[in-house]
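**Fold in tokens:**
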Amino acid sequence: MPRIAGINIPNEKRIETALTYIYGIGDSLSKKVLAEAKVSPAKKASELAPEEINTLKDIIEKKYKIEGNLKRDIITNVKRLKEIGSWRGHRHSKNLPVRGQRTKTNSRTVRGNVRKTVGSGKKQAPGPK
């Protein structure tokens, strides 16, 4: 199992897909990195030579923000928005959708799947004994 940027990359997957297991690397960035390293995207991760793994490590760690550094930057950006009192900062602090989505319905994922109304509210009459 090759290890790049502190993440174990799965052996059985194509390297193009396996690089996306690293936080901060998606499909397009993995293709760009592989083209720069001159590694075939069709290769499986287990078929990579040690030199290829080292070149991938060097390119990823030197040129791109990934994992801890990227997460830290995102957290500081959100904290800055909260401190200056912006609209987006208020939305972040209230755990509501930030990018203009409606909240009367369809914000279940952000609000934690809250379902407050159950049925019509009428209690059923007790049945015969």
In short: The first strand starts at residue 3 and ends at 4. Strands lie at 3-4, 7-8.
